[in-house]
């Protein structure tokens, strides 16, 4: 169950992209009845806040942590630390609870989930970009080593 260090970035890409696509889908399915310029701007605001203050920092932090590992192979769930998994669990539980309870109006689901889902999906794509960069650097390093 161990994978190469860079594969942890790919796993983070897949997990966050899947979560983002799912949340974005929920938001977009609710959006048609509430599509206004104000709601669209609010979705952009939600996206910007989550991307700048949460997910952008999360991508940088975990990419740096993974890149700093000295060993080449790691347990496949080490793409996040315990705190990140706890945050993910709280967000999922809260989101599911909010929708099931009916406490949040459909307009909120449309606006908030669209912005949040887009930010989550971008985080996944950024992990994918970082995986591509790491894989390219590793391949280039291998070629240079063989050329010596």
Structural features, described:
- With 148 residues, the protein is mainly α.
- The protein is built from four helices and two strands; from the N terminus they run E-H-H-E-H-H.
- It has helices spanning 5-30, 37-67, 82-101, 106-147, and strands at 2-4, 73-75.
- Strands 1-2 form a two-stranded antiparallel sheet.
- Helix 1 (5-30) packs antiparallel against helix 2 (37-67) and helix 2 (37-67) runs parallel beside helix 4.
- The protein is elongated, with a radius of gyration of 18 Å.
- The two termini are 33 Å apart.
What is the N-to-C succession of helices and strands?
Answer: EHHEHH
Q: Can you count the beta strands?
A: 2
Question: In whole angstroms, how far apart are the ends?
Answer: 33 Å
Strand order of the largest sheet: 1-2
Mean pLDDT: 93
- The share of residues in extended strands comes to under 5%
Q: Total helix count? A: 4
Enumerate the spans where pLDDT stays under 50 for 5 or more consecutive residues: none
Indicate the radius of gyration in whole angstroms.
18 Å
Percent helix, as a range, is over 70%
Shape: elongated
Reported for the largest beta sheet, the result is: 2 strands, antiparallel
For this structure, the quaternary state is single chain
* Derived structural class: mainly alpha
């Amino acid at each position: 169950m161990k994978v190469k260090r860079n594969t942890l970035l790919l796993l983070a890409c897949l997990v966050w992209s899947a979560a983002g696509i799912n949340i974005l889908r929920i938001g977009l399915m609710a959006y048609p009845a509430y599509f206004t310029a104000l709601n669209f701007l609010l979705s952009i605001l939600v996206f910007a806040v989550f991307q700048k203050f949460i997910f952008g920092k999360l991508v940088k932090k975990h990419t740096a942590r993974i890149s700093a590992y000295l060993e080449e192979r790691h347990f496949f769930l080490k793409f996040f630390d315990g705190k990140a998994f706890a945050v993910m669990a709280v967000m999922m539980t809260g989101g599911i609870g909010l929708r099931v309870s009916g406490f949040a109006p459909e307009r909120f689901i449309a606006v908030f989930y669209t912005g949040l889902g887009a930010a989550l999906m971008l985080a996944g794509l950024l992990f994918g970009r970082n995986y591509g960069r790491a894989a390219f650097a590793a391949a280039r390093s291998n070629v240079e080593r063989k050329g010596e």
